[in-house]
Write a structure and sequence with these properties.
single chain; Luciferase, domain 3; GMP Synthetase, Chain A, domain 3
């Protein structure tokens, strides 16, 4: 394993790994004739990656990029994303991955908020970026990357000169945008030390999740704008001489073919993956793989043992988040299959379970999970803070503990069990959706007088978006509820990533509020009622189509 400490930078770790594991594959793309890039598949060795990264560093350095700059990466989940990130980070540039499902409105916000100096993008993303820039006072340069090559065609100079000096371990390496409970996504600033600590933590967890040096091939269907693929799994592989097999997206019909053909030994999953794979017809490949374990979160308890029995691999349930992706994991035998167990606290990641006043709760009681590194260094290896929002950062760290917002229970033996999501967050197919963001947009529609957005269960995607709407009797007079529902859906779908639009819509005469006019979502529907079964509920799920 490559040794790193709190003074190591990503560039230093990368080139050490390339010197140690030169002939090994670092990145792989599974073959897929329908894919627009590398349809026959591709393997990129550590030595080849080092050569490409050095070439990219020379290009970016010559154009003036360095410490203090930020560059947006709009390269989807292609291996080039990681090569550009490694080159830019080695120069001290902070990278801002861009969600390819963002609509111009969301992309414009990210560009303005992150104040990127440059956006590196694929030719097919140019129109989307230009539409976003049309609504943005911040105007970064664009660098278009050829479909068949990692190098940008041209590079404009940065908006400001680079700062003097070299990157340090506490320099920003990434800004990842994550949905919070207050509307617009927050930019989580992640340092070089954070990213390396996450990979080192994963690589050393042991148990059924032990990582073998130079032998692992980790198949990850999750996108590179998420912390899981771009940081947790990638730096685990980098530091241990393994290979990340990065596919473009999860496709249940191709899962086992890609896993087998890529010789994967580890697979990453989300809860949505499990029922979709179980719904596939039985085929020989599902037991012909060499996978040692699956690593993920959100498997439904009743499907956990069923999946393991059918496909012959353990699913190791974990907990992590962008603010801290040094995961807790139920990877030591005996595991607690089918119980939502996700491991115990470890040295370097302490846990409390508290009530709403931050008072410690007894074992077995459901409460919010608080975490820290240790009493002496509570924020070590955590995110550096929310970009330009010190108040939100300090609020999350009140009392010296990071407030995760997740509700858990702890058993007397220390095992933690997941109970519920944080308030006002909808978890759909692995994406966190802020109810407040969808509400804020709907309230700008002239027909909407009042709105409440919440999660409802979904058998495939874990949760779906439900919008409860009170129509304005003046502006929406004479409009049928079916037409209003379609208009409101289209309004959201055009301005938000496809997965954020309401899958269900309910028209109400009024929405209950407190004396201070705060919406009481828990009173909209009767207790113990599944809102989806109510007469008048409008199902819009079939309209939620991803733009490709």
């Amino acid at each position: 394993m490559i040794t790193v400490d709190d003074s190591t930078t990503l560039g230093e770790a990368f080139f050490r790994a390339c010197a140690a594991y030169g002939a090994n594959s670092l990145l792989a793309v599974p073959a897929n004739p329908a894919r627009s890039y590398h349809p026959q598949g591709r393997e990129i060795s550590y030595a080849e990656a080092a050569e490409t990264v050095r070439t990219l560093m020379d290009r970016y350095r010559a154009a003036g990029y360095g410490l203090s700059h930020r560059v947006g990466l709009f390269l989807e989940s292609r291996p080039e994303h990681m090569l550009h990130k490694l080159a830019l980070n080695a120069l001290g540039v902070c990278c801002v991955p861009i969600n390819p499902d963002y609509r111009p409105r969301e992309l414009s916000y990210l560009i303005q908020h992150s104040r990127v100096d440059l956006i590196v993008l694929l030719p097919g993303r140019v129109d989307a970026v230009r539409a976003a820039l049309a609504a943005s006072p911040h105007q970064p340069g664009l660098a278009i990357v050829d479909e068949r090559a990692a190098l940008p065609r041209t590079l404009t100079a940065p908006l400001t000169p680079a700062a003097a000096g070299q990157p340090q371990a506490d320099s920003p390496a990434s800004i990842l945008y994550t949905s919070g409970t207050t509307g617009q996504p927050k930019g989580c600033v992640l340092s070089h030390a954070y990213e390396l600590a996450a990979g080192q933590w994963y690589a050393s967890q042991g148990g059924l999740g032990a990582i073998r040096e130079g032998q692992e091939r980790l198949y990850n269907p999750l996108p590179l704008f998420h912390v899981n693929a771009s940081i947790l799994s990638f730096y685990c592989m980098l530091l241990s001489g393994g290979c990340q097999v990065q596919t473009d997206r999860f496709q249940p019909s191709r899962w086992w073919a890609e896993v087998c053909e890529s010789r994967a030994t580890i697979v990453h999953y989300l809860g949505v993956v499990v029922p979709m794979l179980l719904a596939q017809p039985v085929n020989a490949l599902e037991r012909a793989h060499g996978v040692r374990f699956g690593y993920g979160a959100g498997v439904e308890p009743q499907l956990h043992a069923l999946f393991e029995a059918r496909f012959g691999l353990p699913l190791l349930e974990l907990w992590g988040m962008t603010e801290n992706v040094r995961t807790l994991c139920d990877c030591q035998e005996p595991r607690q299959v089918g119980t939502r167990a996700f491991g115990r606290a470890r040295p370097g990641l302490e846990v409390r379970v508290v009530d709403e006043a931050d008072a410690e709760l007894p074992d077995g009681s459901a409460g919010e999970m608080l975490i820290r590194h240790s009493a002496a260094t509570p924020r070590r290896h955590f995110f550096s803070g929310y970009l330009d929002d010190p108040a939100a950062t300090e609020a999350a760290w009140r009392g010296g503990w990071f407030h995760t917002g997740d509700i858990v229970t702890r058993s007397p033996d220390g095992m933690l069990h997941f109970m519920d999501r944080r308030k006002n967050i909808i978890r759909r197919s692995g994406e966190n959706i802020a109810a407040a963001e969808v509400e804020a947009l709907l309230l700008t529609h002239p027909w909407v007088a009042q709105v409440a957005v919440m999660a409802v269960p979904d058998e495939i995607r874990e949760e779906e978006v439900l919008a409860c709407v009170v129509l304005d009797p003046a502006t929406a007079a004479g409009v049928s509820r079916e037409d209003a529902a379609r208009q409101l859906f289209d309004f959201c779908h055009q301005q938000l990533a496809y997965y954020k639009a309401p899958g269900w819509l309910w028209f109400a005469d009024s929405i209950p509020t407190t004396g201070t006019q705060k919406i009481q979502k828990h009173r909209i529907f009767p207790e113990q009622t599944d809102p989806r079964t109510l007469a008048g509920m409008i199902d819009l799920r079939a309209l939620k189509k991803r733009s490709v």
